[in-house]
Amino acid sequence: MTALADRTRPAGFVSRFHPVAEHSYTLPAHYYYDPAIAAREREEIWFKSWLLAGYLADLEKPGDYITARILDQPVFVIRGRDMRLRAYYNVCMHRGHLLLEGKGNARMVTCPFHAWTYDTFGALRAAGNAENVAGFDMADFSLVPVRVEPFLHMVFVNLDLDAPSLASQAGGLADMVGGVLPNLSELKNVRRDTYELRANWKLMGDQLECYHCPVIHPQVMGGEDSYLDFSFDSQEHGIWSVDISWGSDEVIEK
Ligand code: FES
Ligand SMILES: [Fe+2]
Question: What dotted CATH number matches 51-186?
């Protein structure tokens, strides 16, 4: 029997994918289902990118924490006694129990399994019976840090300790958002809905870029058939892009 990968990669298959965007037409189909591709994306994209963990509004006071996941890697962000934000893998250094759930405030982080206790700097401060273990050094069991960066009143984390800062990668984004949302810091997240989709994650990106807009949604593009007085523009800026509707949202009378 022919494997699916072989059937979808016929003889003479030429990838339309090129590292230089201008030479790239579309991803080969197997990028959407090949486990080897997913494994590389995990290491090269998910574990090296800045990803949203939560909102600064939940991290105002010392000890305030939020939890998040990057694929199967649990992390938490906590505001220290020194008011600095720090992030760690949400995994106990003893036997790997999850340390924190949801969001809240903790002066110390105590593992629910055997009560090893860490401070907001990630240092192990208490471990039952450790005094009877020869050579046990608490300094060997600090929590493993993760990069954290507040940006636009949100909080982003990155498992790559060498990643360039989000602010440096997202040049111009803060100014653009600040220009259209001057009261950003007063906004609060009031609701979050989570949907689990049985689809490759890239299919979501395929919906968000606006190559399809003039074809599927010509009405929002302005011009002859439009029912809104809009014109639409997509701009790309390195790691971020923006779809802008110019004009008013007045319905055009026809
Ligand atoms: S697993 Fe955390 S204290 Fe044992
Ligand atoms: Fe759409």
Answer: 2.102.10.10
